[in-house]
């Protein structure tokens, strides 16, 4: 078992790191201050350099590499900020992969090249006012009418809402209870009947549009069906890769906090010497490093082992372990970084307090840490638990 990256993986990681650190820090600070998404001209630059197609098929303009390579790139962007990394997240591990995996050939040929080139953005819409963790309670409905579907409903907490061009929208196709009637359909931002609410003001996630939207008699062709009724299990099976991406967004914040804290304690002096000379500081650095390294190994294990699965995706168990651990340690590591830096850590100009705020989001998004723990327990026991009884 070799934990070292290959020469090709290191080259890709280095390219992403050089680009991210040269091009994105000023943009990330401005996005945080003014709360706007990655501009389209920068998105096109991402695309030109191949960062939006790392693990997408070459026939659509992607690089055709593996999940580990995609996560290496995502981590380098996330170390700058989650906001500048978000288009990479959506393309390599998020809703774009749902289209790539389950969409028709025509849909893939139309949308994937646009995303890979940085011309279009895709979001996923799952949650509703009465359907979050209990997702099978969703009420958004797609009804067949001739060659079309007419969609009605209301979506909550859509990251990219109002900014993204396409929406992978979870919906109900019939009256069958629970998951049996659920699938997903593709909606477009400018379609008549798409009504977006105000941009949400959140604790963190500045630079990532988040909005609700109402769907009122939105008519789309039947070709926009991604997964039909009864396909909820398929959609969830593909979610393992999204968990690894979520975990990597957390890891990027934690790794950046460790790097900044390590540099700071060697420069900052107290009582006539750098504060790294004090054992209490050394212990905090060591704890931060252990958590970052363990998180990275869990994520890479889940991604690498996907190659041994029949569907080529991370298992529920390994991806849930990776996500839950990363979501928990990012809160701990960024808080320790803030404490080590003292007043500078608490100051907006130095970035650490932003990591603390952003880090909390990932343990809520994509399934809370407690949901991940029920996934882990179910995998250990070998059966799902009915949370409704």
From TrEMBL:
<dbReference type="InterPro" id="IPR046373">
    <property type="entry name" value="Acyl-CoA_Oxase/DH_mid-dom_sf"/>
</dbReference>
<protein>
    <recommendedName>
        <fullName>3-sulfinopropanoyl-CoA desulfinase</fullName>
        <ecNumber>3.13.1.4</ecNumber>
    </recommendedName>
</protein>
<dbReference type="GO" id="GO:0003995">
    <property type="term" value="F:acyl-CoA dehydrogenase activity"/>
</dbReference>
<feature type="domain" description="Acyl-CoA oxidase/dehydrogenase middle">
    <location>
        <begin position="123"/>
        <end position="218"/>
    </location>
</feature>
<keyword id="KW-0274">FAD</keyword>
<dbReference type="Pfam" id="PF02770">
    <property type="entry name" value="Acyl-CoA_dh_M"/>
</dbReference>
<dbReference type="InterPro" id="IPR006091">
    <property type="entry name" value="Acyl-CoA_Oxase/DH_mid-dom"/>
</dbReference>
<dbReference type="InterPro" id="IPR036250">
    <property type="entry name" value="AcylCo_DH-like_C"/>
</dbReference>
<feature type="domain" description="Acyl-CoA dehydrogenase/oxidase C-terminal">
    <location>
        <begin position="230"/>
        <end position="380"/>
    </location>
</feature>
<dbReference type="InterPro" id="IPR013786">
    <property type="entry name" value="AcylCoA_DH/ox_N"/>
</dbReference>
<keyword id="KW-0285">Flavoprotein</keyword>
<dbReference type="InterPro" id="IPR037069">
    <property type="entry name" value="AcylCoA_DH/ox_N_sf"/>
</dbReference>
<dbReference type="InterPro" id="IPR009075">
    <property type="entry name" value="AcylCo_DH/oxidase_C"/>
</dbReference>
<dbReference type="InterPro" id="IPR009100">
    <property type="entry name" value="AcylCoA_DH/oxidase_NM_dom_sf"/>
</dbReference>
<comment type="similarity">
    <text>Belongs to the acyl-CoA dehydrogenase family.</text>
</comment>
<feature type="domain" description="Acyl-CoA dehydrogenase/oxidase N-terminal">
    <location>
        <begin position="6"/>
        <end position="119"/>
    </location>
</feature>
<dbReference type="GO" id="GO:0050660">
    <property type="term" value="F:flavin adenine dinucleotide binding"/>
</dbReference>
<dbReference type="Pfam" id="PF02771">
    <property type="entry name" value="Acyl-CoA_dh_N"/>
</dbReference>
<keyword id="KW-0560">Oxidoreductase</keyword>
<dbReference type="Pfam" id="PF00441">
    <property type="entry name" value="Acyl-CoA_dh_1"/>
</dbReference>
């Amino acid at each position: 078992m070799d934990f070292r990256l290959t020469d090709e993986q290191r080259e890709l990681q280095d390219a992403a790191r050089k680009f991210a650190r040269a091009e994105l820090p000023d943009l990330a600070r401005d996005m945080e201050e003014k709360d706007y998404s990655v501009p389209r001209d920068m998105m096109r630059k991402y695309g030109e350099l191949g960062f939006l197609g790392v693990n997408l098929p070459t026939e659509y303009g992607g690089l055709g590499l593996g999940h580990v390579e995609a996560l290496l790139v995502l981590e380098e962007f996330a170390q700058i900020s989650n906001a500048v990394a978000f288009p990479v997240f959506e393309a390599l591990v998020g809703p774009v992969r749902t289209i790539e995996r389950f969409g028709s050939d025509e849909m893939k040929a139309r949308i994937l090249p646009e995303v890979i080139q940085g011309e279009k953005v895709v979001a996923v819409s799952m949650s509703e006012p009465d359907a979050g963790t209990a997702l099978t309670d969703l009420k958004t409905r797609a009804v067949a009418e001739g060659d079309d579907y007419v969609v009605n409903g209301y979506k909550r907490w859509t990251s990219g809402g109002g900014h993204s061009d396409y929406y992978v929208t979870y919906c109900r196709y019939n009256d069958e209870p629970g998951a049996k009637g659920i699938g997903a359909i593709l909606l477009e931002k400018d379609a008549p009947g798409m009504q977006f609410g105000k941009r949400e003001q959140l604790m963190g996630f500045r630079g990532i549009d988040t909005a609700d939207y109402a769907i009122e008699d939105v008519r789309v062709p039947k070709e926009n069906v991604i997964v039909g009724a009864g396909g909820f299990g398929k959609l969830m099976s593909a979610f393992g890769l999204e968990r690894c991406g979520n975990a990597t967004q957390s890891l990027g914040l934690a790794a950046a906090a460790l790097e900044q804290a390590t540099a700071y304690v060697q420069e900052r002096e107290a009582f006539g010497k750098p504060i790294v000379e004090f054992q209490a500081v050394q212990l905090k650095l060591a704890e931060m490093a252990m958590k970052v390294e363990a998180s990275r190994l869990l994520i890479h294990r889940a991604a690498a082992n996907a190659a041994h699965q029949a569907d080529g995706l991370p298992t529920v168990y390994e991806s849930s372990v990776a996500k839950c651990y990363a979501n928990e340690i990012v809160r701990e590591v960024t808080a320790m970084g803030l404490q080590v830096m003292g007043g500078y850590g608490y100051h907006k100009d130095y970035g650490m307090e932003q990591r603390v705020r952003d880090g909390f989001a990932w343990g809520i998004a994509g399934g809370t840490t407690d949901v991940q723990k029920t996934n882990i327990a179910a995998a250990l026991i070998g059966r799902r638990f009915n949370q409704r009884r």
